[in-house]
Amino acid sequence: MFKFVYLPLFLFHLCYTNVQAQKSSKLVEMFVLNEIDSTAKGVIQYLIPPSLAYRQNIIDIVFNPEPDTILKQKDKQFAQWHYQNLKIGDTVSIVTILETYNFDLSSAQNTNQDLSNNRILSQSNDGNDYQKLNTKSKALVDSIAQSLLDTITLKTVENIFNYVVASLDYKTMQKDEGGLETALIQKHGDCTEYSQLMMAYCGALDIDSRFVNGKVLQQNSSVNFHNWVEVYLDEWGWIPFDPTFADTGENHTTFDKLQNIYVYVDYAESFQYIYNSTGVKIDYYIFHLGQDDAAFDAAIQLYNTHQYSQAHLAFDALLANPSDRTAALKMFKGMLYARENKFDEGLLFLQESLEISSKTELGSVHYALGNYYALKNETELALIHLKKARDNGFDLTQIFLLDDIDLINLRDKEIFKKFILELK
Question: Is 0.85 topped by the overall pTM?
């Protein structure tokens, strides 16, 4: 099970729900070690996302296993797992329970709340490569920036935003082939180039901006890594803008409006994860769960598509907060273990599910126990629970039973064939 680790630096409550639309989510990430050399040295290093005023509140972070080290560097915290304490097949998982807020130019303009915390002028121009441009490229940026200048700063920023959207074509870039020069000269790039180009024009006009490194929570529980920009405006402070999504048409993004999908990790072009060693092969998975029916449905989808490692994380994340679905969650957790031939662990969860089930849930849990014993090849116990499932209102049909892959060990058993005939 997950072990809770308290991180006091980040765990403070933000009372902005009267201004911004709040959304609760669980961000699930895991690193699976497929190969590791016995001589491998180094760490898996994970940059822990912070709570940020008006943007997000990190309620809790759940690690499994607990990190060997929490490394602090200035305003950042990193969780580290040393390879010497890991072996092939191990999974390092992180579940971040968070609230995100719909913060953009429109919400800042329409709030009556004090935004003084948002006006702290710090971390300016992190990730801005404008000063690193060669003389020719810098002159080009200066010339374009001057053409976008307006007497009103907000209008200038809007001109810059619109110019970047109009001048670039979206193209996924490899790690070593993009950058500001690519965006400026070749006029294409992905979110990194869009963000860098917007910041370059801001830098040419002495408008403070900063690079945001984070993630976006998309539909169907998917999560994408993403970059966007924050610009400092005297009246409201730091305001986020996303020229990439405005250009690609994703999430109905405009100059002044962003969807509530952004998770901030860092104000810099830093690596969120470091696999510091040779002789190591790691698979990385990430998805998110809300706190509604969609979260439960997403977990069931992982179960039904045999994505068992991710399904375990999804069910664990949902079980972290007790609800009226706890019995069902424990039932599916037990069946996950059974499908992995971890029958002792599976039986514990199924028994717990049976103990707390309501009358309307008993049929489903007995059916799961029937599947469990079928997978164990214990035919008589499997039939006992299948009959109890029927007697407790679970809708059994011949087709349903014959199509259930978990019951494959029963199909040639006479006692099962007889039970099938009784369902006519």
Answer: no
